[in-house]
């Protein structure tokens, strides 16, 4: 699964991906960038 990393400014693989529920009821996925370790977030389960 990939997410956009603000630090790398590119799509990276999500490390330790976790599905979370946002305040509006939608699902999101949070985790860590595999190359720099920054937090990344993606809307949706996949
Ligand atoms: Zn990164």
Topology:
Blueprint: E1 2-5, E2 10-21, E3 27-33, E4 39-43
Bound molecules: zinc ion.
Features:
elongated, binds zinc ion, mainly beta, four-stranded antiparallel β-sheet, about 45 residues, about 60% strand
The oligomerization state is single chain
Number of domains: 1
Provide the succession of SSEs.
EEEE
Going by helix content, strand content and strand pairing, the class is: mainly beta
The total count of helices amounts to 0
Helix percent band: under 10%
Specify the biggest β-sheet: 4 strands, antiparallel
* Integer-rounded radius of gyration: 10 Å
Mean pLDDT: 94
Q: Percent of residues in beta strands?
A: over 45%
Bound chemical compounds: zinc ion
Mass-distribution shape: elongated
Record the strand order, biggest sheet. 1-2-3-4
- Point out poorly predicted stretches: none
Terminus-to-terminus distance: 6 Å
Number of strand segments? 4
